Amino acid sequence: MTEQNSTVEPQICPTVLQDQLGIKKDAYYAYLKHLGITAEKDSTSKAFLNSEQENLIRALRKHVVAGGKIEAFEVDEQPAALAIADGGELGQVTEQPVEEINPAQGLDMEALYLEASELSAQRLTAGQQVVMAMASRMAYEDLHPTAKAKVDHVRTVAVPKFNAQEVAENLLNQCRQQMQVA
Fold first, then answer.
1. Looking at the domain 14-72, which fold is it?
2. Model confidence over 73-91: pLDDT tens digits?
3. The organism sits in which domain of life (predicted)?
4. Is 0.85 surpassed by the pTM of this model?
5. Which of 41, 49, 51, 53 could form a disulfide with 12 if both were Cys (CB 3.0 to 4.6 A apart)?
6. Contact (CB, 8 A) for 81 and 92
């Protein structure tokens, strides 16, 4: 029997969290290891995280995306949202100063620029790459009619111009002369 006023803690599926954060299993397990988190299992033996564990993983991911290393991430206690004054009444919560994060700090800007340039170059030349791949696989029968006409024109121009009867007459004369000499 459950208590009437009990709260249900949300269970976060690891694969859903991985998808949301854009990480693969290796990174996910590296995060768990660094944070010392062991996922709990539900009644069907499926792993899940609680919201506190999820928040820690999200904070670590944010740190890594900002250019930090997993090993440099420290789990610091987050201040509670409500402060209780000495008299037991709710007191005023002062905002903690938010440290300005420079996402470019610690990144190799030249390497990033080079990688971005290569991606852009690939995107800009993708059409030409497809055209070249198609062209390398095409036969005469695959050609567009205008291209076929060009090929036909070049083939007719490239064929040597000669008179077959004249060539045959010359060959026969040479053969006759050789037979007379012999």
1. Multidrug-efflux Transporter Regulator; Chain: A; Domain 2 (1.10.1660)
2. 887 644 444 444 455 555 5
3. Bacteria
4. no
5. 49
6. no
